[in-house]
Protein backbone atom coordinates (compact mmCIF):
# COMPACT_ATOMS: atom_id res chain seq x y z
CA UNK A 1 0.00 0.00 0.00
CA UNK A 2 1.34 3.43 -0.92
CA UNK A 3 1.93 5.73 2.03
CA UNK A 4 0.70 9.30 2.38
CA UNK A 5 2.53 12.32 3.75
CA UNK A 6 1.36 15.39 5.65
CA UNK A 7 3.24 18.64 6.20
CA UNK A 8 2.20 20.78 9.15
CA UNK A 9 3.90 24.06 8.36
CA UNK A 10 5.02 25.13 4.89
CA UNK A 11 7.39 28.01 5.63
CA UNK A 12 10.86 28.40 4.15
CA UNK A 13 12.24 25.05 5.29
CA UNK A 14 8.99 23.12 5.30
CA UNK A 15 8.22 24.51 1.86
CA UNK A 16 11.63 23.43 0.55
CA UNK A 17 11.08 19.86 1.75
CA UNK A 18 7.52 19.92 0.42
CA UNK A 19 8.76 20.81 -3.06
CA UNK A 20 11.36 18.03 -2.88
CA UNK A 21 8.74 15.51 -1.73
CA UNK A 22 6.47 16.46 -4.63
CA UNK A 23 9.32 15.66 -7.01
CA UNK A 24 9.83 12.25 -5.41
CA UNK A 25 6.33 10.88 -4.85
CA UNK A 26 2.92 11.55 -6.38
CA UNK A 27 1.85 15.01 -5.10
CA UNK A 28 -1.72 13.74 -4.71
CA UNK A 29 -0.44 11.65 -1.78
CA UNK A 30 0.79 14.76 0.02
CA UNK A 31 -1.40 16.84 2.35
CA UNK A 32 -0.38 20.23 3.72
CA UNK A 33 -1.55 22.79 6.22
CA UNK A 34 -0.21 26.08 7.48
CA UNK A 35 -1.41 28.79 9.85
CA UNK A 36 -1.49 30.98 6.75
CA UNK A 37 -4.14 28.97 4.94
CA UNK A 38 -4.02 31.07 1.77
CA UNK A 39 -0.30 30.40 1.43
CA UNK A 40 -0.78 26.65 1.83
CA UNK A 41 -3.67 26.67 -0.63
CA UNK A 42 -1.53 28.48 -3.20
CA UNK A 43 1.30 25.98 -2.76
CA UNK A 44 -1.09 23.06 -3.08
CA UNK A 45 -2.50 24.38 -6.35
CA UNK A 46 1.01 24.99 -7.69
CA UNK A 47 2.33 21.54 -6.76
CA UNK A 48 -0.76 19.40 -7.17
CA UNK A 49 -0.94 18.31 -3.54
CA UNK A 50 -3.88 18.61 -1.13
CA UNK A 51 -4.45 21.56 1.18
CA UNK A 52 -6.17 20.66 4.46
CA UNK A 53 -8.16 23.00 6.69
CA UNK A 54 -6.45 22.15 9.98
CA UNK A 55 -3.56 20.34 11.64
CA UNK A 56 -6.07 17.72 12.77
CA UNK A 57 -7.06 17.02 9.17
CA UNK A 58 -3.39 16.72 8.23
CA UNK A 59 -2.86 14.11 10.97
CA UNK A 60 -5.86 12.15 9.78
CA UNK A 61 -4.67 12.09 6.17
CA UNK A 62 -0.96 11.32 6.51
CA UNK A 63 1.02 8.20 7.41
CA UNK A 64 4.16 10.31 7.77
CA UNK A 65 3.44 13.58 9.56
CA UNK A 66 6.17 16.20 9.07
CA UNK A 67 6.16 18.83 11.80
CA UNK A 68 7.75 21.85 10.12
CA UNK A 69 7.01 24.47 12.78
CA UNK A 70 9.29 26.65 14.88
CA UNK A 71 10.60 25.19 18.15
CA UNK A 72 8.76 27.90 20.08
CA UNK A 73 5.34 26.67 18.93
CA UNK A 74 6.08 22.93 18.75
CA UNK A 75 4.59 22.26 22.18
CA UNK A 76 1.21 23.77 21.34
CA UNK A 77 1.04 21.91 18.01
CA UNK A 78 1.80 18.59 19.71
CA UNK A 79 -0.88 19.20 22.32
CA UNK A 80 -3.35 20.03 19.56
CA UNK A 81 -2.80 16.80 17.60
CA UNK A 82 -2.13 14.33 20.44
CA UNK A 83 -5.65 12.92 20.93
CA UNK A 84 -6.36 12.66 17.21
CA UNK A 85 -3.06 10.88 16.70
CA UNK A 86 -3.91 8.47 19.55
CA UNK A 87 -7.31 7.68 18.00
CA UNK A 88 -5.65 6.91 14.66
CA UNK A 89 -3.13 4.59 16.32
CA UNK A 90 -5.88 2.87 18.29
CA UNK A 91 -7.59 2.10 14.98
CA UNK A 92 -4.38 0.45 13.77
CA UNK A 93 -3.42 3.19 11.32
CA UNK A 94 0.25 3.71 10.50
CA UNK A 95 1.50 7.04 11.83
CA UNK A 96 5.10 8.25 12.05
CA UNK A 97 6.03 11.66 13.44
CA UNK A 98 8.86 13.48 11.63
CA UNK A 99 10.15 16.70 13.19
CA UNK A 100 12.48 19.21 11.55
CA UNK A 101 12.56 21.62 14.51
CA UNK A 102 16.07 22.62 15.56
CA UNK A 103 17.03 21.53 19.06
CA UNK A 104 13.82 19.60 19.80
CA UNK A 105 14.74 16.11 20.94
CA UNK A 106 12.82 12.91 20.31
CA UNK A 107 12.30 12.52 24.08
CA UNK A 108 10.47 15.85 24.21
CA UNK A 109 8.25 14.95 21.27
CA UNK A 110 7.34 11.61 22.85
CA UNK A 111 6.68 13.28 26.21
CA UNK A 112 4.23 15.71 24.63
CA UNK A 113 2.59 12.82 22.77
CA UNK A 114 2.63 10.46 25.75
CA UNK A 115 -1.05 9.64 25.24
CA UNK A 116 -0.02 7.85 22.03
CA UNK A 117 2.08 5.30 23.90
CA UNK A 118 5.78 4.59 24.32
CA UNK A 119 6.08 2.90 20.93
CA UNK A 120 5.07 5.95 18.88
CA UNK A 121 7.60 6.13 15.99
CA UNK A 122 9.40 9.48 16.01
CA UNK A 123 12.07 10.65 13.57
CA UNK A 124 14.12 13.83 13.58
CA UNK A 125 15.34 15.39 10.35
CA UNK A 126 17.64 18.37 10.11
CA UNK A 127 17.76 19.94 6.63
CA UNK A 128 19.31 23.12 5.31
CA UNK A 129 18.03 25.72 2.87
CA UNK A 130 19.90 24.44 -0.23
CA UNK A 131 17.38 21.58 -0.08
CA UNK A 132 15.12 24.01 -1.94
CA UNK A 133 17.17 23.38 -5.10
CA UNK A 134 18.02 19.75 -4.40
CA UNK A 135 21.51 20.56 -3.08
CA UNK A 136 20.82 20.20 0.63
CA UNK A 137 22.61 18.29 3.36
CA UNK A 138 20.14 16.48 5.62
CA UNK A 139 20.63 14.33 8.70
CA UNK A 140 18.07 11.85 10.01
CA UNK A 141 17.89 10.36 13.49
CA UNK A 142 15.32 7.73 14.46
CA UNK A 143 14.07 6.55 17.83
CA UNK A 144 14.64 2.87 18.72
CA UNK A 145 10.98 2.04 18.08
CA UNK A 146 11.14 3.19 14.43
CA UNK A 147 11.15 0.39 11.86
CA UNK A 148 13.79 0.46 9.14
CA UNK A 149 11.05 0.58 6.53
CA UNK A 150 9.89 3.90 7.97
CA UNK A 151 13.42 5.30 7.88
CA UNK A 152 13.76 4.22 4.25
CA UNK A 153 10.42 5.83 3.40
CA UNK A 154 11.45 9.15 4.95
CA UNK A 155 14.79 9.05 3.18
CA UNK A 156 12.94 8.39 -0.09
CA UNK A 157 10.56 11.30 0.54
CA UNK A 158 13.53 13.61 1.10
CA UNK A 159 15.90 12.12 -1.47
CA UNK A 160 15.41 14.88 -4.03
CA UNK A 161 16.28 17.53 -1.43
CA UNK A 162 19.93 16.54 -1.50
CA UNK A 163 22.26 14.28 0.42
CA UNK A 164 20.54 12.44 3.31
CA UNK A 165 22.54 10.59 5.98
CA UNK A 166 21.79 8.76 9.23
CA UNK A 167 23.17 10.37 12.36
CA UNK A 168 23.03 9.63 16.09
CA UNK A 169 20.60 12.00 17.76
CA UNK A 170 23.18 13.22 20.27
CA UNK A 171 25.04 14.83 17.33
CA UNK A 172 22.04 16.59 15.78
CA UNK A 173 22.65 19.97 17.45
CA UNK A 174 26.22 19.97 16.15
CA UNK A 175 25.04 19.01 12.68
CA UNK A 176 22.41 21.75 12.79
CA UNK A 177 25.10 24.41 13.02
CA UNK A 178 27.68 22.94 10.65
CA UNK A 179 25.06 22.24 7.97
CA UNK A 180 21.83 24.03 8.89
CA UNK A 181 23.22 27.40 9.96
CA UNK A 182 26.40 27.60 7.93
CA UNK A 183 24.82 28.42 4.55
CA UNK A 184 24.32 31.90 6.04
CA UNK A 185 28.02 32.04 6.88
CA UNK A 186 28.91 30.92 3.34
CA UNK A 187 26.61 33.53 1.81
CA UNK A 188 28.43 36.18 3.84
CA UNK A 189 31.75 34.86 2.55
CA UNK A 190 30.55 34.93 -1.07
CA UNK A 191 29.26 38.47 -0.60
CA UNK A 192 32.58 39.52 0.93
CA UNK A 193 34.56 37.95 -1.92
CA UNK A 194 32.37 39.80 -4.41
CA UNK A 195 32.82 43.06 -2.51
CA UNK A 196 36.56 42.56 -2.72
CA UNK A 197 36.27 41.95 -6.43
CA UNK A 198 34.30 45.17 -6.85
CA UNK A 199 36.96 47.07 -4.88
CA UNK A 200 39.57 45.82 -7.31
CA UNK A 201 37.54 46.80 -10.38
CA UNK A 202 35.19 43.95 -11.30
CA UNK A 203 31.55 44.76 -12.15
CA UNK A 204 29.23 43.71 -9.32
CA UNK A 205 27.26 41.07 -11.23
CA UNK A 206 30.39 39.40 -12.54
CA UNK A 207 32.12 39.49 -9.17
CA UNK A 208 29.13 37.78 -7.54
CA UNK A 209 28.99 35.07 -10.20
CA UNK A 210 32.72 34.41 -10.02
CA UNK A 211 32.69 34.22 -6.22
CA UNK A 212 29.67 31.90 -6.04
CA UNK A 213 30.91 29.56 -8.76
CA UNK A 214 34.34 29.38 -7.12
CA UNK A 215 32.86 28.44 -3.74
CA UNK A 216 30.70 25.82 -5.47
CA UNK A 217 33.71 24.37 -7.25
CA UNK A 218 35.88 24.38 -4.14
CA UNK A 219 33.20 22.52 -2.18
CA UNK A 220 32.90 19.96 -4.98
CA UNK A 221 36.67 19.43 -4.87
CA UNK A 222 36.47 18.52 -1.18
CA UNK A 223 33.60 16.09 -1.70
CA UNK A 224 34.72 14.51 -4.96
CA UNK A 225 38.47 14.15 -4.30
CA UNK A 226 38.18 13.18 -0.65
CA UNK A 227 41.26 15.30 0.06
CA UNK A 228 41.62 17.36 3.22
CA UNK A 229 40.77 21.05 2.68
CA UNK A 230 44.22 21.96 3.97
CA UNK A 231 45.86 19.85 1.26
CA UNK A 232 43.69 21.43 -1.42
CA UNK A 233 44.49 24.89 -0.06
CA UNK A 234 48.23 24.18 -0.17
CA UNK A 235 47.92 23.10 -3.80
CA UNK A 236 46.69 26.59 -4.71
CA UNK A 237 49.35 28.44 -2.74
CA UNK A 238 52.44 28.99 -4.89
CA UNK A 239 55.62 30.13 -3.09
CA UNK A 240 55.63 33.90 -2.63
CA UNK A 241 52.43 34.08 -4.68
CA UNK A 242 49.21 36.05 -4.43
CA UNK A 243 47.19 33.21 -2.87
CA UNK A 244 49.46 32.71 0.13
CA UNK A 245 49.46 36.48 0.62
CA UNK A 246 45.68 36.39 0.81
CA UNK A 247 45.74 33.36 3.14
CA UNK A 248 48.15 35.19 5.44
CA UNK A 249 45.80 38.18 5.58
CA UNK A 250 42.84 35.91 6.42
CA UNK A 251 44.86 34.39 9.25
CA UNK A 252 45.90 37.82 10.45
CA UNK A 253 42.25 38.92 10.58
CA UNK A 254 41.14 35.80 12.48
CA UNK A 255 39.16 34.17 9.66
CA UNK A 256 39.29 30.59 10.93
CA UNK A 257 38.83 31.61 14.54
CA UNK A 258 35.74 33.62 13.60
CA UNK A 259 34.25 30.62 11.76
CA UNK A 260 34.89 28.32 14.72
CA UNK A 261 33.33 30.80 17.15
CA UNK A 262 30.29 31.14 14.87
CA UNK A 263 29.74 27.38 14.99
CA UNK A 264 30.14 27.35 18.78
CA UNK A 265 27.65 30.22 19.19
CA UNK A 266 25.13 28.48 16.94
CA UNK A 267 25.52 25.22 18.86
CA UNK A 268 24.90 26.93 22.19
CA UNK A 269 21.78 28.58 20.79
CA UNK A 270 20.51 25.22 19.51
CA UNK A 271 20.90 23.73 22.97
CA UNK A 272 18.96 26.69 24.37
CA UNK A 273 16.18 26.23 21.79
CA UNK A 274 15.88 22.61 22.84
CA UNK A 275 14.97 23.60 26.39
CA UNK A 276 11.35 24.22 25.50
CA UNK A 277 8.55 23.40 27.92
Gyration radius (Cα, Å) is 21 Å
**Low-confidence residue ranges:** none
Distance between the termini: 37 Å
Largest beta sheet, briefly?
Answer: 8 strands, mixed
Helix/sheet category:
alpha/beta
- Continuous helix count: 11
Overall shape:
elongated
Spatial sequence of strands, sheet with the most strands: 3-2-1-4-5-6-7-8
User: Fraction of residues in helices?
Assistant: 55-70%
- DSSP strand count: 8
Q: Please, what is the average pLDDT?
A: 94
Question: Topology as H/E string?
Answer: EHEHEHEHEHEEHEHHHHH
Q: What is the beta-strand fraction?
A: 5-15%
Overview of this structure, please?
- The chain has 277 residues and is of the alpha/beta class.
- 57% of the residues lie in helices and 13% in strands.
- It contains eleven helices and eight strands.
- The chain has helices at residues 12-24, 37-47, 55-61, 71-90, 106-112, 148-158, 172-199, 204-225, 229-236, 242-252, 255-273, and strands spanning 5-8, 30-33, 50-51, 64-67, 96-99, 122-126, 136-142, 162-166.
- An eight-stranded mixed β-sheet has the order 3-2-1-4-5-6-7-8, sandwiched between helices.
- Helix 1 (12-24) links the parallel strand 1 (5-8) and strand 2.
- The longest helix is centred in the C-terminal third of the chain and has 28 residues, at 172-199.
- The radius of gyration is 21 Å and the shape is elongated.
- The two termini are 37 Å apart.
- The model has no long low-confidence stretch (mean pLDDT 94).
In short:
The chain contains 11 helices and 8 strands. It is an alpha/beta fold and 277 residues long. Strand 1 (5-8), helix 1 (12-24) and strand 2 form a beta-alpha-beta unit.
Amino acid sequence: MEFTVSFIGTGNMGGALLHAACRTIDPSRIHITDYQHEKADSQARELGCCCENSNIDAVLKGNYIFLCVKPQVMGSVLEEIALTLKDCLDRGEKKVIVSIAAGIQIAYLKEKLAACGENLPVIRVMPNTPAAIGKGMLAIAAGPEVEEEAVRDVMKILSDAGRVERLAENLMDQFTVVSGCSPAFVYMFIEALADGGVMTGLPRSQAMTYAAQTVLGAAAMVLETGKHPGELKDAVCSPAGSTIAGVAKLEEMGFRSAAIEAVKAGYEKNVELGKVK
